[in-house]
Amino acid sequence: MFVTIQAHEYTKYSHILDQMFRHRKRVFIDTLGWNIPASGDRERDIYDELNPVYLVWCSDDLSRLYGSMRLMPTTGPTLLYDTFRATFPASVNLVAPGIWEGTRMCMDEQAIAADHPNIDAGRAFSLLLLALCECALAHGVHTMISNYEPHLKRVYRRAGVEVDELGRSDGYGRHPVCCGAFEVSQGILADMRESLNVDTPLYRRSTPARSVLSLMSDAA
Amino acid sequence: MLTMQPLRFGHKVGAQAMTVDDSETLIYEKAFAAIKSAANVGAAIAALRDCYEEVAHVTYHHAQTIARGTAVDAPFVRTTYPDGWVARYLLKGYVTIDPIVREGLLRQLPFSWTEVDVGPECFELFSDFQTSGLSPNGYSIPVIDKVSRRALVSFNAHPHVTDWEGYLQRHQQDWAELAHTLHRKAVVELYGDKDPFPQISPRELETLYWISQGKESKDIAIILAISEHTVRTYMRSVRFKLDCANLSQAVAKAMALRLIRG
Question: What is the overall mean pLDDT for chain B?
Answer without folding.
Answer: 87
